[in-house]
Write a structure and sequence with these properties.
The protein contains three helices and four strands, in the order H-E-E-E-H-E-H. The protein has helices at residues 11-20, 56-73, 96-109, and strands at 22-25, 29-35, 43-47, 81-87. A four-stranded mixed β-sheet has the order 1-2-4-3, with helices on both faces. The two termini are 22 Å apart. The longest helix is centred in the middle third of the chain and has 18 residues, at 56-73. It has one domain (4-109): Ribosomal Protein S5, domain 2 (2-Layer Sandwich), CATH 3.30.230. The chain is globular and about 40 Å long. A hairpin with a 3-residue loop joins strand 1 and strand 2 (29-35). By secondary structure, the chain is an alpha+beta fold.
Length: 114
C-alpha cells in the first residue's frame, strides 16, 4: 500500500487530473500527470478497468503490483504532482521487475524524477 499522504483520493481529484493533466503512454500503462504547483508530496491514483480483465482478482493484482512499483520510486519523484495511472491489458503479462523498469522510463520522459 501507498502511505495515505501519497494517495490520490476522490472522484473530483481524479477528474481534475484527467481534464487538466498531460498524458504519457507506455506499453503496459499510461500516466496522466498534473502539476499542482506546490511543494507537497506527490499523490498517485490507479485505474484498472474491466477492459483489462473482467475478473476482480486480476484487477486487484494489477493494482497491488503497480502500487508496489510506485512505492519503491516515491522518494525519487518530484514534489507537487498528481499522477493517475491507467492500466492497459498488457499489464497482466508483466511482472514487478519489468513494470519497474517501464515506470522508470516513463517517469524520465515525463520529467518527474529528481
Amino acid at each position: 500500500m501507498l502511505p495515505p499522504k501519497h494517495r490520490l483520493k476522490g472522484e473530483e481529484s481524479f477528474e481534475k487530473v484527467k481534464s487538466k493533466g498531460t498524458l504519457f503512454q507506455s506499453t503496459s500503462f499510461a500516466l496522466i500527470v498534473f502539476d499542482r504547483r506546490d511543494i507537497m508530496f506527490p499523490r498517485v491514483g490507479f485505474v484498472v478497468s474491466t477492459k483489462v480483465s473482467k475478473k476482480a482478482v486480476d484487477r486487484n493484482k494489477v493494482k497491488r503490483i503497480l502500487r508496489k512499483a510506485f512505492r519503491l520510486k516515491l522518494t525519487e519523484i518530484k514534489q507537487g504532482y498528481d499522477i493517475l495511472v491507467l492500466a492497459k491489458k498488457r499489464v497482466l503479462e508483466e511482472d514487478l521487475e519489468s513494470l519497474s523498469k517501464e515506470l522508470t522510463r516513463i517517469l524520465k520522459s515525463a520529467s518527474l524524477l529528481k
